[in-house]
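Hey team,

Filing this mostly as a record. A colleague (T.K.) asked me to run one chain through the structure pipeline before their review meeting, and I want the input and output archived in the tracker in case anyone asks later how it was produced. No errors, nothing strange. Just documentation.

Input sequence:
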Amino acid sequence: MTSPAPSSPLQSEIASQPQKWLQARETAEQHRDQLPAAGERVAVVGCGTSLFMARAYAALRESAGLGVTDAWSPTEARLDRGYDRVVAITRSGTTTEVLDLLAATKDRLPATVITTSATSPAVALAAPVLTPDVDEQSVVQTRFATTTLAMLRWHLGEDLTEVAAQAEAVLATGVSELTSALAAEQITFVGRGWTNGIAEEAALKLREAAQLWTESYPMMEYRHGPISIAAPGRVVWAFGDLVDNFSADLDVTGADLQWAPIDAMADLVRVHLLCIARAQSAGLDPAQPRNLSRSVVLDRQEAR
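Output structure:
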């Protein structure tokens, strides 16, 4: 079974990712002054998918030795820790919690917002990095999130040419190699370092799109309890290099290990394709999850 032809907005959005990642290099160069400079102490904020991209970026930036970088949910952020800059990630630019944080820090702390809309209220509160070409019709986020991370990775000095090529190969193969994941009653995603954010995002995508039971953990933590739910008919999907003996420890549980020797962002595209396949098999619309909208906008009393 190969990936379906782009006949819905979500399918088209997923398929556009490799090209958008390559184009993100130019975006990073154009907005160099709005993005964190080497040595800056940075707080990155976002909600849901944007938070998981923030966590991936924070780990990458720190591992590159470019400065302290913390990822926060806006309502949990502690901005009294000597940060030099706030970076907010918000597709719509209308998420209440992000707007409240930017408003509270305006004129006190340099702030950048990565968003798709030049008319959103967020652009009046922070220096904008606009990416309208990766906006989405779908409620479920795919290309905005991954292209934002791609742009930030380019800014860190990474070359994503091979990563984009890997994602193109994933799209060409489709879900034909995901036999166990197509039928699994439960999937746990695990990561290491920056790929922990990717694991969290993968689990969220399948919960949203296909209403599946998914979990996510750091790979080394998985054996400290979560492995107890591993069983035949279930899958553990690993991003990044496997830790020693991980495969052997999983073998005895009967669960299937899903792992590919590719960049975690390219591997996430496999999860996106799985979302479509699992949602369609369950009679669901993967682009329009129940109980969700494109942006969470709270009334002022609720936001308190």
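Quick notes for T.K.: The radius of gyration is 19 Å. Residues 227 and 250 are 8 Å apart (CA to CA).
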